[in-house]
Amino acid sequence: MATTALDPFKLIDIENATEEQALVLEDITKQFELSTQKITEIVQHYVGEMHKGLEKNNHTLAMIPSFVIGKPTGKEVGTVLAMDLGGTNFRVCLMEFKENTEINIKQQKYRVPDEFKTGKVNMLFDYIADCVDKFLQEIGYEKKNGILDLGFTFSFPVQQTAIDKGTLLHWTKGFEAEGAVGEDIVKLMQGSLNRRQIPARVVALINDTVGTLLAHAYKRHTDALIGVILGTGTNGAYFEKISHIKKLGTFQSKSEEMIVNMEWGAFDLERKILPITMFDNKLDRESLNPRAQLFEKLISGMYLGEIVRNIILYLIDRDLLFKCVHFDYSTFKEINKQWAFDTVWVSTIEADQSSNLDDTKIVFEKYLNIYSTSLTDRQIVKKVCQIVGIRSARLGAAGLAGVISHRGAIKTGCSIGIDGSLFEFYPNFEQRLKSTFHEVFGSDAENIHLELTRDGSGVGAALAAILAVKHA
Ligand code: ADP
Ligand code: MG
């Protein structure tokens, strides 16, 4: 790879490194390196895994049919509700789609108290219904105006059997409400809405990747192909030909395409193709879900800081880092803690262009109580952040390139809607994706368009509701 000033893969030079520091760093760098050849192999493997997942259930790449059929045209009109459950806040919006892609949005956020996350599921959904009730009252919606169609973004693992039917496989993210696993989420939610006599009908259940793709397709309906999340976690959804989704059997539709939620975080759990380092293995072993979500653990915001921390600990233990730091019982107390190294700092350190690496110094002093680091220490840490960040972007690009290859979309061109802080804020992330596409596709990579797409759970869910009614 040529190393020009603009090269997003250029690694920092470390001044005054000892021979041993240089050797060990070179070895670690190699472990994180993905050659063009390796990327190409990963892309091919990804395509093969897509095929297997489309053929049968319970494959590593789950390739879950979303039952969202047809593409937004950008000409949708109508008023629908959207709800989003899956994080700290529950969100409800009323969306009025006007002509010329103008959308009038009214929305409100409500905190989900912990006692509802872990109590009986009816309590949780009744609470949500109460929030919707309050919201409709606040905005002055009257029942006589009719029953509103509702799109529900529910970002938990769901086995979907229709656009408005899906059973919860298991809770994640601190939710543990009793009586939901194995039950149809739409039925439970509708039951609560009915009990409160709320004029709303759940017509679409989707997850955040599907919503991201829909919101993106609304703006770029002609060539939208993939929706991706690059935030706390990572996942992707894309438009697939229904005839390719073999496991759907005799499913019939007038439309040719359906969105498939790949659940790509689980890619290569068998460890056949991804190069896994000892730093990744430590993270995985100590995680809440060992041996699960391998691809996600190499890419997403939740994990990058922890990988960097693991490398730093290794270097400290080999006596190759922070040698000048005054060392007493509390020096490494902070950095010894699991998850102590925030991915935001990896981002800050990569962005630090000062010759003295002042921002990097601040990270160690302010957040980790490690003082008097040397410039060489900081340069080493910056290099560590770079190799972890570069690998993340290159693997994300490999997954995306797999989808593009599989759909034969490189010549015609395609666009990808991306949501998440990693893509939005991590330095060079976009350039690294693009450069990797160039290695895979040559100059045809110019045909791939990337766009930040923020409102999957609002606009996306509302569009899912509109499409569901249209294709019912
Ligand atoms: P979510 O995926 O939960 O909807 P985000 O898209 O905001 O939320 O992603 C949050 C993740 O992104 C966290 O893991 C956080 O560490 C990481 N993150 C937040 N800000 C930045 C940043 N400036 N640079 C890199 N990563 C960031
Ligand atoms: Mg998000």
UniProtKB/TrEMBL annotation:
It comes from the Eukaryota. Residues 226-466 form the Hexokinase C-terminal domain. This is Phosphotransferase. GO terms for molecular function: ATP binding; D-glucose binding; fructokinase activity; glucokinase activity. Its EC number is 2.7.1.-. GO terms for cellular component: cytosol; mitochondrion. The keyword Kinase applies. It comes from Ambispora gerdemannii.
